[in-house]
Amino acid sequence: MIHKITSPLVQKLIRQGRVKPEDLDPRRIVPRKQRNQPCEIDGQKFHSKLEYGLYMSLCAGYGARNMIRQVSFPIGKNRIRPDFLIILERFKDGSFHAKLMDAKAWDKKKLEYRCTEAWKARANHLFDKHGLKIEIQ
Q: Which of 15, 27, 70, 123 is deepest in the core (most CB within 10 A)?
């Protein structure tokens, strides 16, 4: 069975030291769909450098205590996972007022954010079903 180098199984085997990256066939390297570059900083993994930069600026503005990363919402048979849930205000009964935010790259040619049609459909479904809007940065 041949796996792509970017597959989670191969990445796990590399982390465990069971497979060396130089032993893998370089022709099997597949570029990422949105050209993001994952990074790990201080033990936290980010899907892209853009997400890390947004995380740092939001932590500076709202504080790390008020940031929750990768919150998952069920939408029918699918799920959507915005990058950040930012708590704006906490109430005495334990409830809070918050907003959702996602890091998306700006496409200079199309003059719009780079979102797949599936992501747009899920975000619209989340708004229609729950009234929750995801802000894009």
A: 123
Cβ neighbourhood burial of 100 (10 Å; 0-12, 13-18, 19+): buried
Query: Tokens standing for 123?
Result: 């975000």
- Grouping H, G, I as helix, E, B as strand and the rest as coil, residue 116 is coil
**Helix residue ranges, H only, 1-137:** 8-16, 49-62, 117-130
- Per the CB < 8 A criterion, the answer to whether 83 and 103 are in contact is yes
- DSSP, residue by residue, 13-45: HHHHTSS-GGGS-GGG----TT----EEETTEE
Taking the whole predicted model, whether its pTM rises above 0.85 is answered as no
Alpha-carbon span 31 to 52, nearest angstrom: 20
List beta partners, residue 133: none
pLDDT of 100-118, one tens digit each?
999 988 888 888 888 889 9
